[in-house]
Amino acid sequence: MPPLRFAIVLALPVLPCLAYSAEEEANWSFQVLIGDAYNFESHTRIEHESWGERSFDGDYETGGLEGPLHYAWRISRWADDRGWELQLLHHKIYLQDPPAGVEALSVSHGFNIVSVNRSLKYRGWILRGGVGPVITHAEANILSTSYDGPYEVAGAAALLGAARELELGEHFRLLGEIAATFGYIDAHPDGTPELGLTIRNPAIHAQVGVGYRF
Fold first, then answer.
1. Which of the residues 20, 131, 167, 203 could staple to 26 if both were Cys, CB 3.0 to 4.6 A apart?
2. For 192-203, what is each residue's pLDDT tens digit?
3. Terminal alpha carbon distance of the chain
4. For the stretch 174-192, what's the b/e string if a residue is b when 16 or more beta carbons lie within 10 angstroms of its beta carbon?
5. For the stretch 162-171, what's the b/e string if a residue is b when 16 or more beta carbons lie within 10 angstroms of its beta carbon?
6. Helices (H), the chain
7. CA-to-CA dists, residue 201 to 111, 156, 163, angstroms
8. Across the strands, what pairs with 197?
């Protein structure tokens, strides 16, 4: 199932957080951003049915402006200076220093973080924190065997971020933001012999984008 459909299904239990009463002075916004990420060393464990277990600290890159893009979208509901947000961050990671026997390993379609965020406007900044599941599509080539997908809910993540907005009239905004994420996944790509991938990924994201306020 593609990540957008996953995000909609997983959002249903949290939609009441975005609701508001008629007495509140609330507004909605929708934002789309692109950018890149710096990945700190990510502890990785490979569990291979015939090869056994391998653990190492991996060096991953994102290549955010190469397809598929590193992007995010979010829906926000604001009341005064506080808001609730539903966000999808399409993160992706490519292993740069694979150990012997691993020809390639990536989570490129991707390391999708679906989060519910609490946000706050403070001294011209928008501060946010959120948690939610990670939807993965992992790929690997190990001992000359290719593994690919499927999309699966494979873990969880937390994020902290800070953003600035530039108003372009009543409805449009230009956005710039940074965010830190920590995600954990336990993915099982399709292939034989069976393969399991466990990755703990800390990363810093920088993004720019546009928003529309309703």
1. 20
2. 999 999 999 999
3. 30
4. ebebebbbebbbebbbebe
5. ebebeeeeee
6. 3-11, 15-18
7. 10, 11, 22
8. 46, 187
Q: Are the beta carbons of 184 and 157 closer than 8 angstroms? A: yes
Q: How far apart are CA 35 and CA 92, in angstroms?
A: 11
Tokens of 2: 């593609």
User: CA-CA distance, 71 to 175, in Å (whole number)?
Assistant: 13
Q: Which residue has the tokens 């009441």?
A: 16
From CA 38, how far away is CA 60, in angstroms rounded?
8
Nearest-10 Cα torsion for 48, 53, 55, 59:
-20
Please list, residue by residue across 66-90, b when 16 or more beta carbons sit within 10 angstroms of its beta carbon and e when fewer do: eeeebbbbbebbbeeeebbbbbbbb
DSSP state, residue 98: P
Burial class (CB in 10 A: 0-12, 13-18, 19+), 203: buried
Q: What six digits make up the tokens of 35?
A: 């950018």
Give the model's confidence band at 121: pLDDT under 50 very low, under 70 low, under 90 confident, else very high: very high
Q: What is the pLDDT of residues 15-60, one digit of tens each?
A: 555 554 444 567 999 999 999 999 999 999 999 998 999 999 999 9
**Domains, in order of start, for the chain:** 3-10+28-213 (2.40.160)
Total residues belonging to the chain: 214
